[in-house]
Specification:
Blueprint lengths: L1 E3 L9 E9 L3 E9 L5 E10 L4
Antiparallel strand pairs: 1-4, 2-3, 3-4
Length: 53
Amino acid sequence: NANHLKSVVSGWVYGEAQIVHRGRKLHVWSIDLKNEDGEIICTSRLTVMIIKA
């Protein structure tokens, strides 16, 4: 799930991810993308299932 809040025409974009939940088989991450001024341009939540190969 991602919410795009602003657009960026030029400059750098930075990403920061933090784990919200780390279980044996399920991880949930919160991810923010920011512009050069530190404003959040996109915020998202990622859920990942862990499967042993």
